[in-house]
C-alpha cells in the first residue's frame, strides 16, 4: 500500500501566493486524499482561504510566521535571516522528519541555498542539481542541471546522470531510461574535456540502471530523443528559458495568425481542438515542478508564475517521488560506482565486478 505522505508548503512564495498555493494543494488533494499538509505563512491571510476547503483544512496544520523570503533576496540574505521564514520552516520540517517533501514557488536561489545548508548533500554527491520535466514530441523528457551549478566537472555530470535516471524511474515509471549528455555535436571527439570524461565513465559502468546513448545536441531536446538530458547549470538554464520562450512565441504567433482575417478565424474554429491540445502540451503549468536532487531530503521548486493548476501538478509530482522513495533509489544507484575526486575518474564498484564474473 502507498504510504501516507506529508508535504511541507511555503504558502507565501510565488507571484500569486498565497491564493494560488491554497487552491493548488486543494486540487492535488483530490487525487491524493490521504496526504497531509504542513502550511507555513501568514495565518491571518491563510486561515480564510483554508476555510473554503473544509477537508483540506482538516488535513492540514497551519504554522504562522511573519518572515517571508522575497523574490529580490540574495541567497546570502536568505541564509542569514531566512531560516524562520515560510520557506525555511518548510525545509526544516523535512530535516526534522516531520514532512517527506518541502515545496515552494519562491526565490530559486534562496531555496537552493537554504536547502543545501539545512539538508546537506547525500553521501557520494558533490553538488545538488535542479531537474524538471520538459514537453517533447514523444511526451516528456527531463533535463538537469537547470541552474543550481554554473560550472560542473565530469564527476558532477556522472552524478547528475545517475540522479536523473532515478528521477525518471520514480516519476515516469521507466526502469532503464535513456540518458545522454548535451554537447556541441554527437561525435566522440567534440565537446569539453569534462563532458568527454563523463561519457567515458558512463560507457564503462554497465551495471548502472540506465541506458547511456552518448551525446545529443540542442535541437534534440524537443524531439524527446532521450529520457534524460544531462548538462551543467549554465547551459541547462539557458536551454530551459529558450524552450519556454519558444513555446510562448509559437502559441502567440498562432493566435495572431488565426485572428488576422475572417477566413483564418473560420480556420481556427475548425482547428480549435487540435490547437488546444498543442497549447496544453506546451503550457509550463502542465510540466511544473523542478526538484533539487542530491540532498538528504526532497525539496520541490514550483515556477514562480505558476497558477493553481501548475502548483497542483508540482505537488502531485512531489507525492510520487516521496511514495517511491526517490532518495533511497539514488543512494542505491550510487553504490554502483566509486567516484575518485582527485583523478576525476570513476571505476565500477567491486561488488558489481564480482556480479558480472
Question: Would you write up a description of this structure?
Answer:
The chain is an alpha/beta fold and 357 residues long. It has helices spanning 19-31, 43-51, 54-58, 75-81, 86-95, 108-119, 154-171, 193-203, 233-259, 262-282, 308-323, 326-334, 350-356, and strands spanning 6-10, 36-41, 60-64, 101-104, 129-136, 139-144, 178-182, 211-216, 228-230, 290-293, 298-301, 337-340, 345-348. The chain has an 11-stranded mixed sheet, with helices on both faces. Helix 7 (154-171) packs across helix 12. The radius of gyration is 21 Å and the shape is globular. The relative contact order is 0.16. Residues 338-357 have low confidence and may be disordered.
Salient structural properties:
357 residues, alpha/beta, 13 helices, globular
Helical proportion? 40-55%
Structural class: alpha/beta
- Spans with pLDDT under 50 lasting ≥5 residues? 338-357
Strand order of the largest sheet: 3-2-1-4-11-10-5-6-9-7-8
Q: How much strand content do the residues show?
A: 15-25%
Distance between the termini: 37 Å
Mean pLDDT rating: 83
Radius of gyration: 21 Å
By DSSP (H or I, 4+ residues per run), the number of helices equals 13
Amino acid at each position: 500500500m502507498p504510504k501516507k505522505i506529508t508535504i511541507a508548503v511555503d504558502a507565501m512564495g510565488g507571484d500569486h501566493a498565497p491564493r494560488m498555493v491554497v487552491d493548488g494543494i486543494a486540487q492535488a488533494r483530490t487525487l491524493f486524499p490521504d496526504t497531509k499538509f504542513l502550511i507555513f505563512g501568514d495565518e491571518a491571510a491563510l486561515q480564510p482561504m483554508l476555510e473554503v476547503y473544509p477537508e483540506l483544512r482538516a488535513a492540514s496544520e497551519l504554522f504562522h510566521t511573519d518572515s517571508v523570503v522575497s523574490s529580490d533576496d540574495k541567497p546570502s540574505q536568505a541564509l542569514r535571516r531566512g531560516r524562520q521564514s515560510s520557506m525555511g520552516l518548510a525545509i526544516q520540517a523535512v530535516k526534522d522528519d516531520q514532512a517527506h517533501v518541502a515545496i515552494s514557488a519562491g526565490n530559486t536561489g534562496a531555496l537552493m541555498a537554504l536547502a543545501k545548508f539545512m539538508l546537506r548533500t547525500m553521501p557520494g554527491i558533490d553538488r545538488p542539481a535542479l531537474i524538471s520535466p520538459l514537453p517533447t514530441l514523444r511526451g516528456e523528457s527531463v533535463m538537469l542541471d537547470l541552474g543550481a551549478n554554473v560550472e560542473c566537472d565530469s564527476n558532477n555530470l556522472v552524478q547528475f546522470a545517475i540522479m536523473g535516471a532515478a528521477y525518471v524511474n520514480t516519476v515516469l515509471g521507466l526502469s532503464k531510461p535513456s540518458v545522454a549528455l548535451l554537447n556541441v555535436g554527437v561525435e566522440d571527439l567534440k565537446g569539453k574535456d569534462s563532458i568527454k570524461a563523463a561519457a567515458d565513465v558512463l560507457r564503462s559502468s554497465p551495471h548502472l540502471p540506465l541506458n547511456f546513448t552518448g551525446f545529443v545536441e540542442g535541437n534534440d531536446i524537443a524531439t524527446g530523443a532521450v529520457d534524460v538530458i544531462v548538462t551543467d547549470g549554465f547551459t541547462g538554464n539557458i536551454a530551459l528559458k529558450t524552450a519556454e520562450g519558444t513555446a510562448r512565441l509559437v502559441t502567440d504567433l498562432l493566435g495572431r495568425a488565426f485572428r488576422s482575417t475572417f477566413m483564418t478565424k473560420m480556420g481556427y474554429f475548425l482547428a480549435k481542438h487540435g490547437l488546444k491540445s498543442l497549447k496544453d502540451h506546451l503550457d509550463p503549468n502542465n510540466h511544473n515542478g523542478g526538484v533539487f536532487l542530491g540532498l538528504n531530503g526532497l525539496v520541490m521548486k514550483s515556477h514562480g508564475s505558476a497558477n493553481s493548476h501548475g502548483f497542483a501538478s508540482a505537488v502531485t509530482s512531489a507525492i510520487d517521488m516521496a511514495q517511491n522513495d526517490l532518495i533511497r533509489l539514488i543512494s542505491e544507484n550510487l553504490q554502483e560506482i566509486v567516484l575518485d575526486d582527485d583523478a576525476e575518474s570513476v571505476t565500477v564498484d567491486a561488488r558489481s565486478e564480482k556480479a558480472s564474473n
